[in-house]
Amino acid sequence: MDSGSELEVETPQLLGRRQILTEFLEESPYDFITYLERATCHSELGYPDLAAGDAYRALLLIDEVRDEGFEYHYRALEALESRCEGRVPAILPELRAGDITKTMKALSLNNIAQDSALSEILDRASLQCYRCLSTSLLLCGCLKSSYGFCLRGLGIVPEDEDLLFKKEHIRSVARRKLSLKDDEIDINDLKDQGLVRREIYPWNEHEPDRFSQETLDFLNTELRAVASKCEVRVTELPTLYEVNGIGAIVGATNKQLGLFADTDITSGETILDEYSALTANNRLKESLCDSCSGVLPPLDANTTVVGCPDCDDTMFCNELCLERSADYHPAVCDKDIDTIAKDPDPKETPNALYLLLLARALAMAETKEVHPLELKEVKYIWGDFLPSAANAVPVGPDTPSPPVWTLPFSFASNISGPLHVLEKMDIDIFASVERYDLWIFNSLYAKFRGTASARVNLRDGRPEVAAVHPLWCLANHDCNPNVQWEWAGQMRLWCREKRCDGTKGGIKEGQEILNHYCDIELKVQDRREWAKGSLGGWCMCERCKREAQEEATNGIHAEEHKRETIKASLDG
Ligand SMILES: C[S@@+](CC[C@H](N)C(=O)[O-])C[C@H]1O[C@@H](n2cnc3c(N)ncnc32)[C@H](O)[C@@H]1O
């Protein structure tokens, strides 16, 4: 695929093939050959992250075939047999038909252990997986993981040209980026956080029309229960860009949702009080409620704190939080899931919190027996998605990721971490591809990254709790907000007594609820830096525009003053 027009012609065919392969996987979930075929299809469609996910599942299934003691051994072996009846799967071109037929015959005679020919097939298949993983992860910008898989492949076939080329490529990037000589390179210093496409995948049938009357009616019914004086409306917002300084590209707008007062609200009045079970904390031994992530009340004689009656160590603020945990806890009760992503390395803290949020969403989906993207806490929230067409680029080893790819991605957070969570929940990760495929994790991450709030530990200042409040997060940002918020178990939003510009608080009917995503005490540049992650670009609210203009003018004046002083001293 090397030109835009070929891409346009091929995409519908490739999407059709992807659909067929996915349906086949739903019917025959332990078939690593189909996973490898779908990995190729995802690569050709320009989704290297999804290709890496498929190659990794194929690798896990190859291990299942290899080891008789593994849980899905017989099913994976059976799937391989049925794919190899008298022919070589095209995805394994380096094998000869004769070898496969001989091997399969030996297999049917139950002669597995002695059969080195089977090992040869599995080694060749593993090599394909390693090639795909290392190329795909490289394209996503995950150099360290790519290198690791490259070495594992070379462990099987040391002279493999494809992997040797990639190994050298990564080492030369490392030499350049880390300014090191070859023998000084420590692969652990390589970047492992990449970016991938953030979009509503063409096959995603779960995303609602966020602007339809049906969606607005649903959201407003939900909102009524927690915020009686405002409603969700469709609005136009400026399209933001990550452009430094004043004069970011302005004029363009885009359609989104926002919260609006539907009656006058007086200063100090509570506007919204929302509970969410979509919370997570990263402290292994901390006294936080498992349900709302609020600090547990004291454990004295009159304590309201209750534990889960069926598992140790899961504590709740009170009976209500215990009752609410019925939405997710059954899927993880007594499942040894508590240590995942807890007490992370400081560098990994944000990723660990997002992984924990994902784990909570998966537990909710499993408990309620719904598709994760159909959870009402998730379905309607903003994902900051770009159109697929804006993300689509021809891919190849020499094509760098285009700048529009905006979803943070790593092998650990997006591929192995979620699968580990599912395994801990006793979910068969192969038979559940319809609900727990990588594109579903990515879609959830996109939504969480656009809407989650975090709370820091007061002792060390590190983020320790994250949550998505699906109604609160409908309010847009302004650096001169008319509301204030606090999250301590419940998310509470109230009307400010006084605005930043000194005017008195109060919101009139029809006015927008203007929230704040950053510390509004900061200077304009710092506010913009802080909020750009959740805004998707440079804040262009009236206060930011005015203050940035003032700073620029003051900067010019200061510069002129400096020049004049220098000139005067030279003249003097
Ligand atoms: C938490 S959501 C807010 C609700 C969102 N508008 C919706 O439709 O659900 C955050 C997103 O809203 C948009 N947004 C919020 N405040 C904005 C502002 N002041 N200017 C431009 N976009 C804003 C950005 O696209 C941001 O990524």
TrEMBL record:
Residues 228-518 form the SET domain. Residues 552-572 are annotated as: Disordered. It comes from the Eukaryota. GO terms for molecular function: zinc ion binding. One of its GO terms (cellular component) is nucleus. Keywords: Metal-binding, Zinc, Zinc-finger. This is SET domain-containing protein. It comes from Calycina marina. Residues 557-566 have a biased composition (Basic and acidic residues).
